[in-house]
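name: query_chain
kind: protein
chains: 1
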Amino acid sequence: MGSDSNQLHTTAIVPVKGLGSANGRLGELLSEDERARLAEALFLDLIVKLPRARCIDDVLVVTSEPPIARQAGWFGHKVLVQESDEGHSEAAAAGAQAAMADGAQRVAMLPVDCPMLDTDELDAHLGRSPRTALIVPDRHGTGTNALMLNPPDLFLPAFGPDSCARHVTRARATGQSFALERVETLAIDLDTPEDFTLLRDRLLLDPQPAPRTAKVLWQLGDRAQQAAA
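structure:
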């Protein structure tokens, strides 16, 4: 990680919800146990993959879940344990503060539910504009799937529905340069039954981006079609 000596020290912040409450909008499709299996696969695929990114120096996982904290530690990542699950934005902001105290000059707040993420593409986008805030929208252009901030406390994150516009407003208010940039492999997040079907089809064709997630999606079958039937 972080092979370029002239780059900003960059910490990836990965907030991880409790496994039981993860992927809540898939509740009509999957049981709590199935959602937990899927959440764990997504998490493991991401933390195994992130060390390949040249623009990332270290990874900080923010969670209130002991199993997630343990697994992150096994893979050599830093962990910020929260007393309770306070929400995505709060976890990301707490991670940014902790990373900054630990010497990070830039943070990349990354989602755990974008299994197509390609680290080469992340390097290309993050490496190109090291001194700006970078806002990466979801495929609908309304949510935010990743947020890169330099310095890490440039503004407070506000993830959730319609967060893309909020992040643009906050970035503009700082007076600093920023970019709103599509990163193809970060466009699809696993949020709705439609996303479930889309990602399942993509990963069945090529499981390489997220082999654990591909396997769980395959085992769970085509739930979205069953639910619609």
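note: The longest helix spans residues 32-49.
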